[in-house]
Specification:
37% of the residues lie in helices and 21% in strands. The chain is of the alpha+beta class and 154 residues long. The strands form 2 sheets. Strands 1-2-3-4 form a 4-stranded antiparallel sheet, covered by helices on one side. A 4-stranded mixed sheet has the order 5-7-8-6. The C terminus is likely disordered.
Amino acid sequence: MPEYRERLWPTPWIYVASLLLVPASILVLAPVSVPAGIVTGIILYVSAVGTLSFTAPMIEVHDGRLRAGRAEIPLALVGEAVGADADRARLELGTGLDARAFLVIRGWVRTLVRIPIEDPTDPTPYWLLSTRRPDELAAAINRSRRPDDSGLEP
């Protein structure tokens, strides 16, 4: 079982806002055919909801590895993860952002975790991952990268 798992689902307001595709389609297609506008709007809405839902990335810490979307890295190659609240996240994504950083960012998630990469062969300085539970994700990463020493002999 994973130490941490979270899917970055869109917030409900994204789905509600997507409903505006229906009246917009009706408005555009009304001179041609109102029923075509309704059908087109419904198809666009279902497509938008499907795309948002099926492309929501998974963040997972499991078996000494961190997976974010399709990317994966062994936790032996990362430094200490640090959670960032909304204000700190804004700074990290703004003036503090290194263009070489790996990002799994969703605009509807305001908090994130910064994970430094300690692999000298990797040009990526750190990963920034959106998460709704930054402290919990950072703790899971930090626990997994430092296995329990209780089994070691003196």
